[in-house]
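Q: Now give one record:
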Amino acid sequence: MLKIGITGGIGVGKTVVCRMFAILGVPVYDADTRAKWVMRYDEALKQELTDAFGPETYTQEGELNRTYLAKTAFHDPQKLALLNSLVHPHVGNDFEHWVEAQSSAPYVIKEAALMYESESWRQMDEIIVVSAPLEVRIKRVLQRDPHRTQHDIEAIIGKQLKEEDKKARAQHIIYNDDQQLVIPQVLKLHELFISKK
């Protein structure tokens, strides 16, 4: 089965593009949502995270203590790298099990913001990068997440792989720049992927 990765920085519109593929009947794996699930229910990962970041990583009820983990890891590059190195392999395994359950689909999509950074692009046959100009991305995120400031968004963008680097490594680019229609771009790729089945 063909495995297609969709990636791109914050505010490019990955989720919108993935919804379009889902409407066409393509199974979509949302890596961010599944990572949260895996961190909550994968007992081996819970133990690894507790060993790495301390008993406060989970509440007494077994819920992930996101506030504590964010405060502990997100502002320390080494701890963030450690967190990612623990979580990403478990998400990769979860994705492989999910793919096995999609046997009737012509192809599947994995949406992940950190596809290159996490090395999960290696599990994919082809990569689509969703692209949008920086000012459009900032405007979208400010509208979507009113609690974030422009400074917050620029800091997130600064930590992500540069868009030009992502585009250079991808087989396909969808331009979601408010100038070009996205649906025809999605339909064209859909037909291409089906033809490769």
